[in-house]
Amino acid sequence: MTKKQSILFSIAVVLMFSLLFFIIFGEHGLIDLNALNAEKFQLKEKNELLTHNNLSLSVEIDRLKHDPHYIENVARQELGMVGENELILKPRRMPKP
């Protein structure tokens, strides 16, 4: 191998390693691609969770609009309301000895 060929070979090797370096570490390289894929996965999970929550809220809104038994149950549990013809019994406190 002549000196000229070895210099050209060395330049080619350096260029290949430089190209490889830029493919892996450069802007829009493999490291950025992996980070974007991880972010995409997290956003998909968050989107699925929000979709599920929206569906649950939609069902609850529909029940609050149209289901009298559900409305009564919510009024009893969350607002402490009492139904018609119901008695409230309060226990008496025993005096301290």
What would you say about this model in short?
The protein is mostly helical and 97 residues long. The chain is 74% helix and 0% strand.
Kindly describe this structure.
- It is rod-shaped and about 110 Å long.
- It contains three helices and no strands.
- The mean pLDDT is 88.
- The N and C termini lie far apart (111 Å).
- The chain has a domain at 33-79.
- By secondary structure, the chain is mainly α.
- 74% of the residues lie in helices and 0% in strands.
- The protein has helices at residues 3-25, 30-66, 68-79.
The dominant shape is rod-shaped
> Radius of gyration in whole Å, from Cα?
35 Å
Question: How many angstroms separate the termini?
Answer: 111 Å
Mean pLDDT: 88
State the low-pLDDT regions, or none.
none
Counting H and I runs of at least 4 residues, what is the number of helices? 3
Task: Tell me the total number of β-strands.
Answer: 0
Please estimate the helix content: over 70%
**Could you say which structural class the secondary elements and strand pairing correspond to?**
mainly alpha
